[in-house]
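Incident review: delayed structure delivery

Summary: a single-chain prediction request sat in the queue longer than the usual turnaround. Root cause was a stuck worker, restarted by the on-call engineer. No data loss occurred. The affected request and its eventual output are reproduced below so the record is complete for anyone auditing the incident later.

Affected input:
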Amino acid sequence: MVWEVLPLIGDYIKKHIKPNVSGIRNGKDIISGKKILDNGAVVHAGAFLMDDEIELGAGVVVEPGAMITGPVIIGEKTEVRQGAYIRGKIITGPGCVIGHTTEMKNAIMTGGSKAGHFAYIGDSVIGKVNLGAGTKLANFKLTEDIINVRIGGSAGEKISTGLRKFGAILGDGVSSGCNSVMMPGTILGKNCLIYPNTTVIGAHGANTIIKQKDAFCLEVRK
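Output delivered after worker restart:
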């Protein structure tokens, strides 16, 4: 099953990573002064590189206030914006955006994927997607149970993943509106569209539109 890759991400990175930040860290976590790597990657003053197990691809930009803990492989021309928090076991493809105060851990983000503002991406694999501001890929149940994937939604057939931490698998072309939430074990096929303020449960096929119909009332103020 596709989620079986999640426990393997850290080991894969350790086998393939080519760390290239030790020369600018000099044993320190916070970067003082703008640093440019040999491949053109730029790390701005005020960024935090917490260890040497970090590979920054050509043309990567790490903005002030971003924090990166390895092991991490960041693909070329990816933007790690101000306040982003990368907590280790992360692989991104080229041209990604890890936006302002976006947090990631144990996840794969393929090329061109964008999480521009206030997102959480934990224990997940996402294709070339666009996550609206505040999108959360929840990865842990309040009850701490093993996470099940439900086919077709909350009432569908359950498949056990054997995992206590599993966020979402999102196919290429998925777009989520602001403040949408993917519940643990969400799987979305290509080109799904999630409306703002929608909570998504279960596995849904390509080209699905998912929205919640809440009552919206207007009254004259007195």
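Verification: DSSP finds two helices and 26 strands in the chain.
Action items: add queue-age alerting; document worker restart procedure.
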